[in-house]
Every structure is written in C-alpha cells, then in structure tokens.
C-alpha cells in the first residue's frame, strides 16, 4: 500500500504577508514568506472586454481518482502521446520513460545525450510535435555542460526499448544556465509555435536584457527560428522581466498564462502579453509601476513556489513545490474571479507538473525525489485527478 502523508485541506484567506529576508532558490527552499494576498487585477488596469465571460464557481473541488504510476526518479516533464501513454522526463537520469496510463507499466525510451544534471538543471520540459502523426518528433529542454538548449528527437517505437530515441537535433542553444533558475518548461501553443520558459540563473539584469535569452518566455517555430509576429525583430523573445517561469498554459480564448517563482516576497500568476515586461528584478509582485505588467495573483512564497500549470473547468491549476499543494485559481476573462483555493496540502509532498488529461481530468506529478523532498515508498508518482 502506498504510504501517504496526512491530508490537510487548506482554504486561502486574504492576509498581509510578513516578509523576512533571505535568498531563494528556484524551488523556494530558502524563501521566506507567509499567507497569500487577495487576488485582483493589476493596479490601474481597466477591465477588458474579456471579463464578460462567465466565471466558474467560486469554490471548486479535487478528487484523486487513482495513482497512475509510481517509483519515478526526479520526474520533471510530462507529455501525453496522441496514441496513448505518458512520456516522462527524469531530470537527474536524463532519460525519457513511457508510462502506460492504464496499467502504470514503465518502459524507458532512451537517454538524451548531452544532459548534464546539477542542482536544478538536467532534463527538464518535454513536448510533442504538433505534427507528431507525420513526424514522430519529441522536443526536450535540458541543461548541458555549457548552456540550456532545446532539441528534438525522432521517436521510433519499433526499435528495442532503451534505443527508441533518435540523435538529438539542437534547434536552440545559448540559453543561460546556472545551478538554479534554469526555467525549462516547453509547450506548443494553439498557434503551433513552440514556447519555452527560461530563468535568469541568479543574474537579475539578464531578465531585462532583451538581447539575452535568460529570464524570458520564448516563442519559436518548430525549427527553432523566431516565430512570425514576435514583438522584437528577429528574436525568439516573447515576454521578458521574468525571474524563473516553469509553468505555461492557454485558456479557451487562447490567452497565455504563466506561473513564476518570486524571491523573498511574492510568487506570481501572470497573464502574458507579447512584448510585455513583467518587472524582475526591478519589482516583485504587484507594485503598480509604470512600464511593468503586474501579476493577476500573488502568493507568499511559502504557500506556492509554483512549477507547472494547466487550465481546466475555467480555472488555472498550479502545482506548488515548497507549498506542497495544488492551487485552483478561477478566472473570468483576464481577471481572477474569486480567492484561490488550495488542495492536497501536505498530502503528496512537493508537486511539480500538472497537465490536462481532457475534460475535467488532470495528470499531476509529485517531486519528492528531487533532492529537496522527503521520499517515501512509491515516490515519485503520477496521479489522476477529477477537478471542478
């Protein structure tokens, strides 16, 4: 029987954060923080026409349907295949594993060459080509000895287990690497362009330097070229002023949302606009300063340290590492329509990645074997959730 931590259901109340100083890591282990602040639109921002959309109920619910798989080592990226099965990247082993979502059986596809795991770096996000039916390409973001880079590999299921990944073709290199703050999430958007999140490797000014790939959300073609319509000429930079983004998702209106690690004070949920400056390192959280876009929601860092996000049933679902909980943030247009709610608090430990499984279901991965958790029997796991 799987050993579970004592379940605690936590409801969020608006409060004032008491800040203590400290230097944070990507996962927030050295962060200091307190209770979350109320959710609201950015100061001085007028409601958009999108707010006419119906809001989901103020209160939602989460049900853990089952444990899909267990015994995973440092799982980071999760990508469902069109034909069935879940691809899971191991940050520290540099491998990609196929998990049968019905039986939980695991089969290693292969090891990604060139991965150099250290600290929070290693094999991070993975994504499936929008033309997967014809090209069978898997995309991966990883830390090498010199940089962070994005590659694509042919997946050939007819080859023997462990040899099913082709040689990596690097489509983007030169993303700044560090012990921490490597970003790493990959996702294809509704426009079939590839989006990647990057960190500023503890060098805050990189986030404001539009010539640097650090501290950004990038948008590119499947070949790694700057995507048509990007806000800056001949550049993959889509938004900037980010400290370390690890979660991106699109809502029903194809608007992009992103979660971001704060430092000492606020973790953030942002609605991303092309060319937008999200403030780091000049501001953290909602400051209302001209020239910067404020987050739509913020949390004391002990409550979140957010990684992956997904959107289902009209809400953003945000996995918390240090917070050890799953946040529900109900949306109405580009605003948060009610106080966020916390679920699964301390029940499964650190939570890394959340992915839509269709309808009102989500896949959720734990992250207790990443060097900062307390691994128990069965860790790490993939859970199937029903949400509303």
TrEMBL record:
<feature type="compositionally biased region" description="Low complexity">
    <location>
        <begin position="32"/>
        <end position="48"/>
    </location>
</feature>
<dbReference type="InterPro" id="IPR011041">
    <property type="entry name" value="Quinoprot_gluc/sorb_DH_b-prop"/>
</dbReference>
<keyword id="KW-0732">Signal</keyword>
<dbReference type="Pfam" id="PF07995">
    <property type="entry name" value="GSDH"/>
</dbReference>
<feature type="region of interest" description="Disordered">
    <location>
        <begin position="25"/>
        <end position="60"/>
    </location>
</feature>
<dbReference type="InterPro" id="IPR012938">
    <property type="entry name" value="Glc/Sorbosone_DH"/>
</dbReference>
<dbReference type="InterPro" id="IPR011042">
    <property type="entry name" value="6-blade_b-propeller_TolB-like"/>
</dbReference>
<feature type="signal peptide">
    <location>
        <begin position="1"/>
        <end position="21"/>
    </location>
</feature>
<feature type="domain" description="Glucose/Sorbosone dehydrogenase">
    <location>
        <begin position="72"/>
        <end position="372"/>
    </location>
</feature>
<protein>
    <submittedName>
        <fullName>PQQ-dependent sugar dehydrogenase</fullName>
    </submittedName>
</protein>
